[in-house]
Amino acid sequence: MPIASGPVIQLAWVTDDIAATEQLLHEQFGSGPWTRLDDVRFGPETTTLRGEPTEFVAHISLAYAGDLQLELIQPVSGATVHQEFLDAHGPGLHHLCFGVDDLDAACAEAEAAGVPVLMRGSMADGEIEFAYLDGSASGAPYVELARIGPQIQAFYDAIRTGS
Fold it and tell me: What is the CATH number of the domain that holds 58?
């Protein structure tokens, strides 16, 4: 059984300058408009990195290319797979994200298949649950699995449709 069979709902970049990356992707590929969420806090009560609680802050910006969500992440503080990537590789394409209905089951499938779950968390009172897997065997730095609740999906739909 596959860990995730789709859909791919997002491509994400990590950057050290979110405004410049928004502008670059807009100029080169017509991406946008961008919806930026500055200083999004993830607490240690809901987020782990390699099984240990972690706290971090990030700027996040969202846009759409058709139905595919584009995400930019600029780490501000704290230990994350985003900051690790930025430190090791500089800015760049970080992960693709599969939507899942049951994050616990998908993470268990990943671990059973020998694919480590590196970082896991939730936000918006559990409306989003996410896990970052080691994607190196597939050629991607990371693969994210995400369960999106109805309130956050409505927020994303409003961004996508410009309403």
Answer: 3.10.180.10
Spell out the residues 6+ positions from residue 153 whose beta carbon is closer than 8 angstroms to its own. none
Compute the distance between CA of residue 144 and CA of residue 128 in angstroms, rounded to an integer.
12
Q: What is the mean pLDDT of residues 138-150?
A: 91
Residue 1 included in any domain: no
Does residue 72 sit within a domain?
yes
Cis peptide before 33 (omega within 30 of 0): yes
Helix (H, G, I), strand (E, B) or coil at 84: helix
CA pair distance 3, 36, nearest whole angstrom? 31
Cβ atoms of 70 and 159 within 8 Å: the answer is no
Q: What is the pLDDT of residue 140?
A: 80
Count Cβ neighbours within 10 Å for each residue of 136-155 and write b for 16 or more, e otherwise. Answer: eeeeebbbbbbbbeeebeeb
The residue with tokens 């690790």 is 84
Domain of residue 52 covers 8-161
